[in-house]
């Protein structure tokens, strides 16, 4: 099974060079005004995803029904690259997506532990932006879970 490197989306107006220091290999950084995914970043991430597919085959990509994921451009890019993009109905991802209940909950817990180990609270966003990527990498490797990067952050 292939792995994909994560996308880190930071709040701001410009990318700072140190934001990916210590990040998992191949990680990509994006910036938005509110720190959330937007259509432009999703298209960028989708193209990065395609560029890093190593085995030619049809791909079924399941995504949540966020407005940032829905566009004609994504549909066209998917069709061109033999990717069948299917969208979960809005507000049902937590019920229909097993990764939310299994892997992501574990990753969130490990991330909180790593923040605590570094004397930062993950709840009040006091961890410096320059340490987020390395903390995620540490979280991915901690404990009995050596996560592969099958997901987008």
What does this structure look like?
With about 150 residues, the protein is α/β, with parallel strands linked by helices. Helices cover about 40% and strands about 15% of the residues. It has 6 helices and 4 strands; from the N terminus they run ββαβαβαααα. A two-stranded parallel ribbon has the order 1-2. Strand 3, helix 2 and strand 4 (about 85) form a beta-alpha-beta unit. Helix 5 (about 105-115) packs across helix 6. It is globular and about 45 Å long. The two termini are about 20 Å apart.
Give the helix tally.
6
User: Average pLDDT across residues?
Assistant: 79
The fraction of residues in strands falls at: 5-15%
Any idea what the shape is?
globular
Write out the strand line-up for the largest beta sheet, numbering strands in chain order: 1-2
CA radius of gyration is 16 Å
Span between N and C termini? 19 Å
Q: How are the elements arranged and paired?
A:
Elements: E1 7-11, E2 28-32, H1 39-51, E3 59-63, H2 72-80, E4 83-87, H3 93-96, H4 98-101, H5 103-117, H6 129-141
Parallel strand pairs: 1-2, 3-4
Overview features:
disordered C terminus, two-stranded parallel sheet, 153 residues, globular, single chain, alpha/beta, 13% strand, 6 helices
Summarize the structure.
With 153 residues, the protein is α/β, with parallel strands linked by helices. It is built from six helices and four strands. It has a two-stranded parallel ribbon with strand order 1-2.
